[in-house]
Structures are given as C-alpha cells and as structure tokens.
C-alpha cells in the first residue's frame, strides 16, 4: 500500500498524521514491477503474454468527487456502448474515496477508470494506470481551475485574510484540492497549513463546497468544474459562496486502463471512448456545465507535465511497496 511522505512545511504534524495511503511525486518514477521501454512515463504491457488479463467483466470507476449514486445513471449509456464495442460485460464500481479506487486498481479488480487530476501520477506509478483520454469541449479546449472560496460575510476579503482561519482541502491526492493550493499559499502568500491557518480534509470537492456554505470551514480549495455541476443540478447557487482566487487552467480527469490488459482489449476500450456519441446522453447533460462534449486523446507525459511540476514544488514523495 502506498504511503505518503509529506513535508511538515506543507501540513504540519497534526494533519500529516492522518495521511495514510496518499502520495504524489514529481519525477514520475514507475514502481520496480513496471517497465517503460518507450520512455512515455507509463507502464508497458507485459512482454510475457501469459501475464495479459482478459476478464469476462470489465469494472469501471469514475473519480469519487461527488455522490457515486448520481454517476451510476450518468455513465450507464456510455458503459452500454463500451459493452457493445468490447463484447464484455461492464460493471460500474461506485468508489467512495481516491484510496479505494487506487487500491482496487493495484489489486487488479478495477480495469478502466477516470482518475482525478492529482491522482494520475500515483495511479500511473504505483498501479500501472495508462491514461489515454480526457473530456473536452467541442472545439477541443479542456481543463478546469482551482478556486479558493469562502462564504458571504466571512470577513475574508482576500487570500491573506486566511491567516488564523480554517480552510478545507479535499484529499492529499487531489491537485486542485490540495497540491496546487498548498504550493500557491506557501510560495505566493507565505501561508503554511497548521502554522498560519487551521486545515482539514473534507474528502471531496462537493463536501468542501457544502462545508463552506454551511460555515463548517471558513474557506476551501475546490475545482470549479465540480462547483459548476453542482450549480447546474441546483444543489447550490452561485451566490452561496465567494471566490477569493482562481488559478491557471489544469487538465481534468484522466481516463485510462490497466497496463496489463490484453492489447486487443485495451485497443477496444480506447475505441469505445473515442467512438461514443455524446448528443442526447446523460453524460452530455451532466458535463454540459463544464462545456465538455467529447473525449479527446491525451498523453500523460505531455498533458500532466504541469501537475508533475507542482508536485516537485511541493517536494512530495511516495513508496509504492
């Protein structure tokens, strides 16, 4: 099980003690059991064909950013399409946490997944995840921004006012929910969690948003794509919170498969993503608020470079054993 080694300067000893099974690193070093002969930073399929996996049922999981029950229906049409293309039964796995998703992948129980932005390096290096697709707008643009939010009347007018207040992160594997804001707060504003402000982990972006609105936290770091979907569904209103900071654009959830799937099956899974017709589907309706209307090809080496740079700035290491 991967264990995090997170510098005290980022979180402090009180919060750091709660970070079992979380980690990211900057240099994208694969665990020793994987090989990368082509230098693309992801695990190669095993050269020994006897190690290829060709299950009767494919298990798919979407990143646990919101209520998993909502996404069973959202993904149903897409999974039916994957069944048609692959000839396999496809089962939705409603994971409750990033740790559960990654451990299922490491154990070989999860074959295809959408992994949150910050979790991709851990999934790639420790679980043999091979991301190949990402959601994008019709014009091919993609991504989301990290926002730091507070509730109206909190008395927090700017980021510097977070000193002495409470702030929620989502989980240590989240880019927008932890790694990016941690680096930003420290480097640009001189604010360190547990030294300059009280910090907590909410478990997900929607928990952080609702926690701020309900005044459980004075502020939170969130992905604005999640907030947009919650607003579109009527869960929250735009006036329920105020935005203190908006970051540069980051890549969004990466979709991929396990490295050791039979190459023919892996190719059919890719085909299922890129041949899916979005128009009129529950998937299109759910992600319309984020202006996402198709899957586009991506590479971990290129599209996750900014995330690896953030991790390097945070000096975070991990152990895949």
Automatic annotation (TrEMBL):
Domain of life of the source: Bacteria
InterPro entries linked to this entry: PhnD
GO cellular component: ATP-binding cassette (ABC) transporter complex
Keyword entries, A-Z: Signal
GO BP terms in the entry: transmembrane transport
Signal sequence region: 1-28
Alphabetical list of SUPFAM superfamilies matching this protein: Periplasmic binding protein-like II
Pfam families: Phosphonate-bd (PF12974)
Family: Belongs to the phosphate/phosphite/phosphonate binding protein family.
Protein name in the entry: Phosphate/phosphite/phosphonate ABC transporter substrate-binding protein
Gene source species: Billgrantia endophytica
């Amino acid at each position: 099980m991967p264990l995090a080694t997170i510098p005290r300067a980022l979180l402090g000893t009180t919060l750091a003690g709660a970070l079992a099974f979380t980690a990211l690193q900057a240099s994208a070093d694969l665990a020793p059991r994987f090989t990368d002969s082509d230098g693309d930073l992801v695990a190669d399929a095993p050269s020994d064909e006897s190690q290829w996996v060709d299950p009767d049922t494919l298990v798919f999981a979407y990143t646990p950013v919101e209520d998993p029950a909502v996404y069973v229906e959202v993904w149903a049409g897409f999974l039916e399409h994957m069944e048609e293309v692959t000839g396999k039964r496809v089962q939705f796995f409603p994971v409750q946490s990033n740790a559960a998703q990654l451990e299922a992948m490491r154990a070989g129980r999860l074959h295809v997944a959408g992994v949150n932005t910050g979790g991709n390096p851990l999934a790639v290096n420790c679980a043999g995840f091979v991301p190949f697709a990402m959601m994008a707008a019709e014009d091919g643009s993609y991504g989301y921004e990290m926002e730091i939010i507070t509730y109206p009347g909190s008395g927090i007018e700017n980021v510097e006012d977070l000193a002495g207040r409470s702030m929620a992160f989502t989980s240590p594997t989240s880019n927008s929910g932890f790694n990016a804001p941690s680096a930003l707060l420290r480097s640009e504003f001189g604010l360190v969690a547990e030294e300059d402000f009280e910090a907590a982990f909410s478990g997900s972006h929607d928990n952080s948003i609702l926690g701020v609105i309900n005044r459980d936290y004075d502020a939170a770091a969130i992905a604005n794509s999640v907030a947009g979907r919650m607003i579109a569904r009527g869960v929250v209103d735009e006036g329920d919170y105020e935005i203190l900071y908006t970051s540069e654009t980051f890549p969004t959830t990466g979709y991929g498969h396990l490295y050791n799937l039979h190459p023919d099956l892996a190719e059919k899974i890719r085909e299922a993503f890129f041949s899916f017709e979005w128009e009129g589907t529950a998937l299109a309706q759910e992600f319309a608020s984020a202006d996402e209307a198709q899957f586009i090809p991506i590479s971990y080496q290129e599209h996750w470079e900014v995330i690896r740079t953030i991790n390097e700035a945070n000096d975070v290491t991990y152990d895949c054993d």
